[in-house]
Design a protein that fits this description.
By secondary structure, the chain is of the alpha/beta class. The protein has 2 domains: about 240 residues, Rossmann fold; about 100 residues, formyl-coa transferase, domain 3 (2-Layer Sandwich). Helix content is about 40%, strand content about 15%. It is built from 18 helices and 11 strands. The strands form 3 sheets. It has a 6-stranded parallel sheet with strand order 3-2-1-4-5-6, with helices on both faces. The protein has a 3-stranded antiparallel sheet with strand order 7-8-9, covered by helices on one side. A hairpin with a 5-residue loop joins strand 7 and strand 8. Helix 1 crosses helix 8, helix 6 packs parallel to helix 9 and helix 17 runs antiparallel to helix 18. The radius of gyration is 26 Å and the shape is elongated. The two termini are about 40 Å apart. GO terms for molecular function: CoA-transferase activity. Pfam families: CoA_transf_3 (PF02515). This is Carnitine dehydratase. Keywords: Transferase. InterPro entries: CoA-transferase_III_domain, CoA-Trfase_fam_III, CoA-Trfase_III_dom3_sf, CoA-Trfase_III_dom_1_sf.
């Protein structure tokens, strides 16, 4: 196969000891680019995320969409790592792997003897990728960690966006895990790069705590610089009009984002048909706009209420004003811009038919991603993988009865 037609990560073997979203989401990016990803799951229910779509409050579907999203193009092997036989099989798998990913809790990693030192002794070239909730040090390193608490709450995000009149909802499932997984993917690729130069493996790691802090690092840096934070205000008395939601005549929400407000002020006034604002003593300068902000917000709100969303989308585009309609999930999933850029791509599911899925968020020129395939059934590839490891048919049968 010509080099330019091969998957980017063709020949890279990855062993996953992961659960839920953070670790598996990094593995799915590797699988998108052609790595052979073998997901090791415990007997019984396997990865908790296989059934997490059934949790009360999540969208209702018979399809395990949460598991599908982060486990396409992988193989599933069932091993009981608490047994001698299961641990031995895992060691064989890791013995010739390029990468091992785990987001098991630290005490479980040590108890199951799947720590870096143990596996490095078997395979000095292994890139051992560790994903944690709270990091590997400190009093909280052994606490259970999920993006809801480590990423969103501990970063300050939650307190920042908490509605003025009370908390109304929760963060979307996995919304902190997926960006954190990209950091884990980057750390894996950095490890592979250093191995290319040194011939030696290494441990790479990241945490939800670190990724939440990085995502909200501008505001945390403000605190570290002893900046004075402003008290929260309701929308109608916001500090600035430039990044608020406005309601159109047909009751839909539009998001405005005038990042370069000095440049965009006059075009914006033309766009909303309020050219009088430019000479109005209340709004003619940035200082006067700040002084009269509640009145300006009221006037702009009234302007947007005069026309439909379709009108404003056309009008603001014409005047090159940064904006977007506030999408619901149906619109977010059917967004033509995402389809055009292969962000949302086709998926043929053997049980649920033709549908679409979300691709990993980058491309590499000259290399095609794998066509998304269905996530594996629990233990679907146990027999195949054990046979490749040299197990006899009799030995394999013992594992299949676990």
């Amino acid at each position: 196969m010509p080099a330019e037609n091969r998957p980017l990560l063709d020949g890279i073997k990855v062993v996953e000891l992961t659960t839920m979203v953070f670790g598996p989401a990094a593995g799915v990016v590797l699988s998108d680019f052609g790595a052979d990803v073998i997901k090791v799951e415990p007997p019984g229910q396997g990865d908790l995320n296989r059934n997490w779509h059934k949790i009360a409050g999540l969208p209702i579907s018979e399809m395990p969409y949460a598991f599908q999203m982060t486990n396409r193009n992988k193989k599933s092997v069932v091993l009981d790592l608490k047994t001698k036989e299961g641990h031995e099989a895992l060691c064989r798998l890791a013995g010739d792997a390029d990468v091992l990913i785990t987001n098991y809790r630290l005490d479980a990693i040590n108890r199951l003897k799947i720590d870096y030192d143990t596996l490095r002794a078997l395979n000095p070239k292994l890139i051992y990728a560790l994903a944690t909730g709270y990091g590997e040090k400190g009093e909280e390193k052994d606490k259970p960690g999920y993006d809801t608490v480590c990423y969103w709450t501990r970063s300050g995000f939650e307190s920042h966006i908490f509605p003025f009149d009370g908390w109304l909802s929760t963060f979307p499932f996995g919304a902190g895990d997926h960006p954190s997984a990209m950091t884990l993917y980057a750390s894996i690729m950095s490890g592979l790069y250093q191995r290319q130069h040194t011939g030696k493996g290494c441990k790479v790691s990241t945490s939800l705590l670190a990724n939440g802090a990085w995502s909200n690092s501008v505001m945390i840096q403000a605190q570290l610089a002893n900046a004075k934070f402003r008290p929260k205000r309701p929308r109608d008395n916001a500090y600035n009009f430039i990044s608020l939601n406005y309601k159109s005549k047909d009751g839909l929400l539009l998001k405005l984002t005038l990042v370069n407000s000095l440049r965009d002020w006059e075009p914006f006034c033309h766009a909303i048909k309020r050219t009088g604002f430019m000479a109005d003593d209340r709004f003619s300068t940035p200082e006067k706009r700040i002084e009269n902000m509640p009145t300006l917000i009221w006037e702009i709100s009234n302007a947007f209420a005069e026309e439909t969303m379709e009108y404003w989308l056309s009008r603001l585009t014409e005047y090159d004003i940064p904006h977007s309609k506030v999408f619901g999930y149906e619109e977010a999933a059917q967004d033509q811009q995402k389809i055009d850029n292969e962000i949302v791509v086709p998926l043929e599911h053997p049980e649920f038919g033709s549908m679409q899925t979300v691709s990993s968020p980058f491309q590499v020129s000259g290399f095609e991603k794998r066509i998304p395939a269905v996530a594996p059934e629990l233990g679907e590839h146990t027999e195949e993988v054990l046979r490749e490891l040299g197990y006899t048919e009799g030995e394999i049968k013992k594992y299949l009865t676990v």
